[in-house]
Design a protein that fits this description.
Layout lengths: L14 H12 L4 H12 L25 H13 L5 H8 L3 H13 L8 H4 L8
Helix pairs in contact: 2-5, 3-4, 3-5
The structure holds heme C (HEC).
Amino acid sequence: MHYAEQEYVTGCFPKIALAAGMLFLTAGEGPTNRLFALGRHLAQECTSCHRPDGPSAGGIPCIVGRDPKYLVEALQMYKSGQRTNPTMASVAQSLDDEQIEALARYFASLPKRGGGNASAEKGGPTAQR
Ligand code: HEC
């Protein structure tokens, strides 16, 4: 599957991630590509809550087009108990490090549509329950 390059230029997508996104387009069969495919597969568990195209309803933060390092960190914090949201803690505890990395890369690569969720842009932990 190919993503139109201009899709990467929308929303909160930084230049570094843009370059990383391009890698996915050209990587062919490398480990990067395998992780990306794994992420896309695992993401089905997440998209019932986190919309793959931007802001979600009900205080669920936008996780697309974010810095992949931020997403990895957030998931590791749920897993270790540093962040205590019960839903995300149980989601994160079922993931190993590779799966977390894969999911972070996948969601980071998705273009954010429809503008919106300014609070998620600031990168701070969202406190809504
Ligand atoms: C049942 C709904 C639900 C599912 C399923 C779910 N999440 Fe979440 N997620 C949430 C909620 C609610 C929050 C906000 C929790 C908080 O306040 O800390 C959240 C927060 C997050 C955050 C932190 C975002 C931020 O801005 O700090 C990340 C990253 C995340 N989820 C990733 C995932 C991934 C990856 C999956 C799939 C493996 C997933 N979530 C599945 C509901 C869900």
